[in-house]
Amino acid sequence: MAMIQDTVKNLRLPALLDERQRGVPETAKAWEARRLELVDLLCREVYGYVPAFEGMVSAACVEKDEGAYAGKATVQTLNLTVTMPQGVFSFPIVMTLPNFIERPQMIVSLAFRKQIPDRYYPQEEILDAGIGVAQLCYTDVATDDGDFSTGVAPLLTQGERTGTTLGKIGMWAWAASRVMDYLQTLDCIDRDTIAVLGHSRLGKTALLAGALDTRFAFVYSNDAGCAGDAITRGKRGEHIRDICKNFPYWFCENYQKYIDREEEMPFDQHFLLAAIAPRYVCIGSAVDDIWADPEYQYYSCVAAGEAYQFLGLEGFCHLDRLPAVGDSFHDGQIGFHLRSGGHFLSRYDWLQYIDFMKNKKRP
Ligand code: GCU
């Protein structure tokens, strides 16, 4: 019995709940305190600290088509301007809203490219599900390289980079929250069920955005793997050594301490998933994406389930075996699916996320 739980126990992961909480009466307040500790630890050791936001966001419409997709949708390009004590920063978003749905659910989509739709984006099917999308292109916020002198980077980091200075993933997550700020001003959408979604490096970003900003009711991470949705200890494919060599600027410098010392980390990626509890989080994996490692993505869902159970929720409802291609476990607050094929944000993945979103209410 409970073979998978035993496997996860044998990974010897740092405990999600601290000693004080084991066996004490469950309370949402106790969890929130612990959740903030998890977020703090992840910021300090992995992603860097995001400066507190003291600013305002305004939007200017650049282009609007009220009859897009054969009249089904209104597509608007907006320029968001963020005014902060450190300075002013603007970036574009594209909003696609279904015309015939009252107050649609929305997904903040972190995108690799500006084009809509593109190969990662079955726009008509999303619209047909009655869901709107606000898309930002990540390089409009901060370049995907080690340059911290352009985009929003100088406003969020200021001066020398220290061990805990924010990396690029944190900057893209910051931008998702600014889109959320704007969406909160709209009466024409369902402001209580807004999701954030991303693939791969942007899946890591979506998870961090969801952990930092509790206004996101749903978080979707597709094939995010290392430093995202997969347990690091013992996984196949990418490790901290690889990711810190190829993409050091995604993280704060403290993360480098754990190169070849993953067993010493006082955290693992189940902390990031759990930091979203009690809200919804759904993970997509692909059987051939060994670099991300679907098996260890699954284990982080299993391990993060403990936080939800502490709160008296179901958490992750799954079978007591490793996932098989075609499985999708959507009954609890944590969702997971495994599809055939490799690293990609596919139509299949989107349909899974839509299904997950449609059948849940905000906790
Ligand atoms: C690389 C990187 C991964 C990342 C991926 C992506 O493969 O090693 O960690 O998820 O790029 O963002 O496409």
Q: How do the helices and strands follow one another from N- to C-terminus?
A: HHEHEEEHEHHEHEHHEHEEH
Helix share, percent: 25-40%
Low-confidence stretches: none
Return the structural class. alpha/beta
Strand line-up of the largest beta sheet: 1-2-3-5-4-6-7-8-10-9
Q: Tell me the radius of gyration.
A: 19 Å
Globally, the shape reads globular
Bound compounds, each kind once, are: alpha-D-glucopyranuronic acid
Rounded average pLDDT: 95
Beta content comes to 15-25%
| Euclidean distance between termini CA atoms | 30 Å
How many β-strand runs? Answer: 10
Number of helices: 11
Biggest sheet statistics: 10 strands, mixed
Structural features:
alpha/beta, 11 helices, 10-stranded mixed β-sheet, binds alpha-D-glucopyranuronic acid, 363 residues
